[in-house]
């Protein structure tokens, strides 16, 4: 702890907690956690120590690290259980992305449902990303005997800027946009995570037949997302019958922290899902 800090002061308490967690994170973040490495249980992180202002400007130049191309990404550090020990190569690639994953609830519920897929959360806020990392480290440690939660991880990233640096063309099967920031004022609409330009990037990283999932409690944002996706030539809306039988829609409605908040307030949840259409041939 820094000089002059007292543990009675809430901000010092938070600082001390964060420092302790940071040391733990540095040590375990990229380590292969398994029953051989650990038998001790670990406390789940406490959200109140990771408070951060609600919004982070997606246009500012955060000091973000990103690979020059997808081939330069060290996925083995995020998913050490999926590395072939003989060759050192990854045995799988990420195929599911949760864009703006917040505190990671969706990742955690998707993990057992898609145990053979690698799932990545992308989050722009530092403390929120730290929380998700600490949550995954604790879950991996506490389930070391079963190797659960090895298929999920999180990256601090601005997914409005660097998506093609992380993913190859047609790499993803599913992209989730759960309760994105609404940016209510008209002059802020350009900061919304679904725009015409960004949709072309999402279409690039999604494979044909892949699915974009959206959910929000803000009707205006729902209509905005539907309008932009419907207008885009590479997306087509899926029916409500399709939504009703899809496992991910069920998980998405109930798993995320924002979704739970809306549930407690008995608010509405608007869902819209779109399939990635085949790219037309240029003649
Ligand atoms: C309202 S929260 C929803 C979080 C989560 N999806 C849920 O449903 O609980 C929106 C999240 O998106 C993150 N975010 C906003 N813009 C982003 C961007 N360009 N790249 C990555 N994350 C972003 C925010 O920091 C915030 O945590």
From TrEMBL:
Origin: domain of life: Eukaryota
Reaction(s) this enzyme catalyzes, per UniProt: guanosine(46) in tRNA + S-adenosyl-L-methionine = N(7)-methylguanosine(46) in tRNA + S-adenosyl-L-homocysteine
Q: What are the catalytic residues?
A: 181
Q: Give the residues the record marks as binding S-adenosyl-L-methionine.
A: 100, 123-124, 158-159, 178, 256-258
One term under GO cellular component: nucleus
Enzyme class (EC, first level):
transferase
Is this entry keyworded Methyltransferase? yes
Q: Which CDD domains match?
A: AdoMet_MTases
Described by its record, this protein's role is as follows: Catalyzes the formation of N(7)-methylguanine at position 46 (m7G46) in tRNA.
Similarity-based family:
Belongs to the class I-like SAM-binding methyltransferase superfamily. TrmB family.
Q: What is the protein's given name?
A: tRNA (guanine-N(7)-)-methyltransferase
Species per Swiss-Prot/TrEMBL record: Lachancea thermotolerans (strain ATCC 56472 / CBS 6340 / NRRL Y-8284) (Yeast)
């Amino acid at each position: 702890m820094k000089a002059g800090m007292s543990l009675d002061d809430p901000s010092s308490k938070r600082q001390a907690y964060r420092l302790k967690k940071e040391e733990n994170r540095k040590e375990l973040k990229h380590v292969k956690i398994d029953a051989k490495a650990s038998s001790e249980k670990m406390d789940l992180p406490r959200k109140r120590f990771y408070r951060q202002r609600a919004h982070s400007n997606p246009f500012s130049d955060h000091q973000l690290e990103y690979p020059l191309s997808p081939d330069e990404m060290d996925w083995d550090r995020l998913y050490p259980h999926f590395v072939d020990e003989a060759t050192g190569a990854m045995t799988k690639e990420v195929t599911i992305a949760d864009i703006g994953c917040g505190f990671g609830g969706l990742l955690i519920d998707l993990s057992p449902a898609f145990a053979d897929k690698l799932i990545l959360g992308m989050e722009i806020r530092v403390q929120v990303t730290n929380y998700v990392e600490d949550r995954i480290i604790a879950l991996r440690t506490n389930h070391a005997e079963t190797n659960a939660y090895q298929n999920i991880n999180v990256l601090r990233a601005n997914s409005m800027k660097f998506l093609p640096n992380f993913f190859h063309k047609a790499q993803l099967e599913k992209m989730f946009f759960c309760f994105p920031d609404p940016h209510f004022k008209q002059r802020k609409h350009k900061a919304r995570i679904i725009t015409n330009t960004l949709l072309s990037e999402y279409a690039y990283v999604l494979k044909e037949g892949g699915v974009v999932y959206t959910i929000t409690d803000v009707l205006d944002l729902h209509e905005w997302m539907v309008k932009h996706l419907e207008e885009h030539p590479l997306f087509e809306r899926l029916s409500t019958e399709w939504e009703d039988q899809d496992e991910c829609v069920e998980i998405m409605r109930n798993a995320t922290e924002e979704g739970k908040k809306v549930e407690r307030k008995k608010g509405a949840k608007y869902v819209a899902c779109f399939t990635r259409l085949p790219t037309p041939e240029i003649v």
